[in-house]
Design goal:
Layout: E1 10-14, H1 19-30, E2 34-39, H2 42-52, E3 57-60, H3 68-80, E4 85-88, H4 103-131, E5 133-138, H5 151-171, E6 176-183, H6 189-197, H7 201-208, H8 221-228, E7 239-242
Parallel strand pairs: 1-2, 1-4, 2-3, 4-5, 5-6, 6-7
Bound molecules: NADPH dihydro-nicotinamide-adenine-dinucleotide phosphate.
Length: 250
């Protein structure tokens, strides 16, 4: 299984201390990568490092701050001497009708979901280009579909897909592959909030997902191993749904 082997590779996973990010981090660790997690909550970071075992480490950082991306990337390179893989997973949502959003709320969602992702890519670029590298950006079903309660979130996630394409085109010459993953509905802290706030959501998701269930964070491990490994060296600029068939359902 050499094509999927990540032994000796170093990965930074933003928001890797829980939910989808931890599911992806586990996939990377299973394939042999050393993982650095970046999240704000030091306790959650510590628990995730324990769950990952091996040489995993974490940095407590707020990626909403302009310096956050550089702090996370520099900590990774200082600790492990290199960086090969960047998973841009940190994200938030604020749920309300479009007309109710304040400008501050709009920017707070765009800032973490889109701007910090771009800044992480910029900060990682000089390190990834040394040996070639992989960037995996997390979009959403709302990169494709609209939701009445998620205008800034949908705008940010749609933009993630277009940004992914631009970076893929620009950095192919550096042997850096940039792809997006579009998770379906995955059972995490984020969607626990959605289920509480959006009535009937749980049942609607079940009814529309051909697989007949919500996804688990572990469902994101396989695609991450693939997109982080040499097996995907000719795959770039794509947006791949991992959704139990949700986006295939008419
Ligand atoms: P969680 O709320 O479980 O995880 C979000 C992660 O982002 C946490 O690790 C959190 O860590 C981190 N994070 C949030 N804000 C910041 C910040 N300012 N600085 C650093 N880290 C931050 O959500 P999910 O696992 O569900 O979501 C992960 C990603 O997947 C998001 O981008 C989300 O939009 C996307 N997604 C989720 C879907 C789902 O169904 N769950 C579906 C489609 C996409 P901490 O709190 O410690 O900072």
């Amino acid at each position: 299984m050499t094509a999927f082997d990540l032994t000796g590779k170093v990965a930074l996973v933003t928001g890797g201390n829980g939910g989808i990010g931890l599911g992806m981090a586990k996939g990377l660790a299973t394939a042999g990568a050393t993982v650095m997690i970046a999240g704000r909550d030091a306790e959650k970071n510590g628990r995730a490092v324990e769950a990952l075992g091996g040489s995993a480490a974490a940095i407590a950082v707020d990626l909403a701050e302009e310096s956050g991306a550089k702090t996370a990337v520099n900590a990774t390179v200082q600790k492990f001497g290199r960086m090969d893989i960047l998973v841009n997973n940190a994200g938030i949502n604020i749920r309300k009708s479009p007309q109710e959003f304040s400008l501050e709320e709009w920017y707070s969602v765009l800032n973490i979901n889109l701007t910090s992702l771009f800044l992480c890519c910029q900060a990682a670029y000089p390190h990834l280009r040394i040996r070639g590298g992989k960037i995996i950006n997390i979009g959403s079903m709302m990169s494709i579909f609209g939701a009445s309660f998620a205008a800034p979130y949908g705008a940010s996630k749609g933009a993630v897909v277009q940004l992914t394409k631009s970076l893929a085109v620009a950095w192919a010459v550096d042997n850096i592959q940039v792809n997006a993953v579009l998770p379906g509905w995955i059972d995490t802290e984020l969607t626990k909030g959605a289920r509480e706030q959006v009535s009937g959501l749980h049942e609607k998701v079940l009814a529309r997902t051909p697989a007949g269930r919500w996804g688990a964070p572990e469902d994101m491990a396989g695609i991450t191993m693939f997109l982080a490994s040499p097996a995907s060296d000719f795959v770039t600029g794509t947006a791949i749904p991992v959704d139990g068939g949700y986006s295939a359902q008419g």
